[in-house]
Amino acid sequence: MNKKVIPVLLVAYFSIFQSFAQVDLDWLALQNGISWEAKNGISLFKEAVFTKELEDLEGKQVSMIGYFLVLEGTQSVYMLSKNPMASCFFCGNGGPETIVELQFGKKPTYRMDDLISVVGVLRLNRDNPNHCYYLIEKAEALSL
């Protein structure tokens, strides 16, 4: 093989490989990546506004680490939280940017407050009050 071709092939290989890798997302990026503004001039209803950096990640595969939360009752709504349940957003520690809704293909077997790493597709929710501002679809997780 021609010696000039090998470096070109290596660059092409690593470029393709990197395009399929997920982006590591941390809680600070979520915290700094959102603000709220009045919707249609009505200050009672606020709409999420995301930074360009987060908008660029929408629809891409991301990975995050956090605590697994399951909403009791239905056992079908799952969250990744910056904090364990005892100090999570619902208990007054932090804002809605400290949780991410998880949408798994099959029911997960993790327990409340398990520390997990999640990989999936990032979605940003601007105005649907039935979901979190951040969602990870097609989620797959590993215990840490």
UniProtKB/TrEMBL annotation:
Respond yes or no to whether keyword Signal is given for this record: yes
Q: Which UniProt keywords apply?
A: Signal
The source's superkingdom equals Bacteria
Q: Which residues form the signal peptide?
A: 1-21
User: How is this protein named in the record?
Assistant: DUF3299 domain-containing protein
User: Which organism encodes this protein?
Assistant: Flagellimonas spongiicola
Q: Top-down, what is the taxonomic lineage of the species of origin? A: Bacteria, Pseudomonadati, Bacteroidota, Flavobacteriia, Flavobacteriales
